[in-house]
């Protein structure tokens, strides 16, 4: 149910997996993961992926009004997921994370950077495309290709591999090509204007707000009614390792960046700010104010879902004795999570 779930890593497969298949309905995916969590030998980590709004976001562009029904559908799917978790008596014992690997921005045929205008196709191979063109110059053509592109277009920034900014943690892998050309937000790199073009895309500078994914978490391990300005997706890995009590392998994230999300963290008053990170509690909204409902807050956050893939991670909480008893509120089921 997860792209790549059927790949052997470190010589092993997940305990259970389904080869990734887009034609399996969301309801079937939910039923399968709940079955794995409630079987005689329950799993402790389950991953569920859903293709939208990534699929439709690429086709339509995130600013297209036709994305409204797509988001509304995802809202209902999230509601269904919560409903099924409650029915299986898992809602209070699993830690649920709803997140994505990227945002998305609107592209336009008016904002195309055409490599054919600047480079001879015989001088390079295009390994990866917009918005980060990975360019492998032919033997002896590195400087020529780099210089031809360096000042070619005001909305294109060109780096030699060693010049790629540190903050992207992108330049030290053998897969990174000698020349990396990055488009400004909403600009599209094509060899020729007749090449395939998507109205929505991601992969731009991760400092851009439009590239930021959603992050929602609920469960005994997480603080309730807590929002956080931002976090790095690379911090998810140490967070998951911590929740599963396993030792993390070398990585680029930091558990200390996300420690404040955990219910075991020392409570401190953090003022509410509208952000992409939100932890949900079953209590009434308390410090967030009674007049604002879940749909309101989810609406703020799910604004980002318009532009992203979302996938869902369940982690069965291993030490539920730590958790205070949580109360169900029917309101969450009754109300759609997002008013489209
Ligand atoms: Zn995508």
UniProtKB/TrEMBL annotation:
Pfam name, any one: Phosphodiest
Q: Which Gene3D superfamilies match?
A: 3.30.1360.180, Alkaline Phosphatase, subunit A
Location (main, coarse): membrane
**Where does this protein reside within or beyond the cell?**
Membrane
Q: Which cofactor does it need?
A: Zn(2+)
Q: Which SUPFAM superfamilies match?
A: Alkaline phosphatase-like
Q: Which GO terms describe its cellular component?
A: membrane
Would the keyword Glycoprotein be found if you checked this record's keyword annotation?
Answer: yes
- Keywords of this protein's UniProt record, alphabetized? Glycoprotein, Hydrolase, Membrane, Metal-binding, Signal, Transmembrane, Transmembrane helix, Zinc
**What Gene Ontology molecular function terms does this protein carry?**
hydrolase activity; metal ion binding
Superkingdom = Eukaryota
The way it spans or sits in the membrane comes to: Single-pass membrane protein
InterPro entries according to UniProt: Alkaline_phosphatase_core_sf, Phosphodiest/P_Trfase
Transmembrane feature ranges? 294-315
> Would you identify the family this protein belongs to, as annotated?
Belongs to the nucleotide pyrophosphatase/phosphodiesterase family.
Protein's name according to its UniProt entry: Ectonucleotide pyrophosphatase/phosphodiesterase family member 5
**UniProt source species:** Fukomys damarensis
């Amino acid at each position: 149910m997860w792209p790549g779930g059927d790949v052997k890593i470190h010589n092993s497969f997940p305990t259970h997996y389904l080869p990734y298949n887009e034609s399996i309905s969301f309801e079937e995916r939910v039923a399968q993961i709940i079955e794995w969590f409630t079987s005689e030998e329950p799993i402790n980590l389950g991953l569920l992926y859903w293709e939208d709004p990534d699929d439709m976001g690429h086709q339509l562009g995130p600013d297209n009004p036709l994305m409204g029904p797509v988001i509304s559908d995802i809202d209902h799917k999230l509601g269904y997921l919560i409903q099924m978790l409650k029915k299986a008596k898992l809602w209070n014992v699993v830690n649920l994370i709803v997140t994505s690997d990227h945002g998305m921005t609107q592209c336009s045929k008016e904002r195309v950077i055409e490599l054919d205008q600047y480079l001879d196709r015989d001088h390079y191979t295009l390994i990866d495309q917009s918005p980060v063109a990975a360019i492998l110059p032919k033997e002896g053509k590195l400087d020529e290709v780099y210089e031809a592109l360096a000042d070619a277009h005001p909305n294109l920034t060109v780096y030699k591999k060693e010049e790629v900014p540190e903050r992207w943690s992108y330049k030290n892998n053998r897969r990174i090509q000698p020349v990396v050309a990055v488009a400004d937000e909403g600009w599209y790199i094509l060899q020729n204007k007749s090449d395939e073009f998507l109205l929505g895309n991601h992969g731009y500078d991760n400092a851009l707000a439009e590239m930021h994914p959603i992050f929602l978490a609920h469960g005994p391990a997480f603080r309730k009614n807590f929002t956080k300005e931002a976090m790095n997706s690379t911090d998810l890995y140490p967070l998951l390792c911590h929740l599963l009590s396993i030792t993390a392998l070398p990585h680029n994230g930091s558990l200390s960046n996300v420690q404040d999300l955990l219910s075991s963290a020392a409570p401190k008053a953090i003022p509410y700010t509208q952000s992409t990170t939100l932890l949900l509690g079953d209590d009434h909204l308390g410090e967030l104010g009674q007049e604002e409902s879940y749909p309101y807050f989810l609406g703020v956050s799910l604004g980002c879902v318009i532009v992203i893939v979302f996938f869902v991670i369940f982690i069965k909480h291993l030490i539920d004795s730590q958790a205070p008893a949580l109360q169900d509120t029917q309101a969450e089921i009754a109300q759609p999570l997002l008013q489209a």
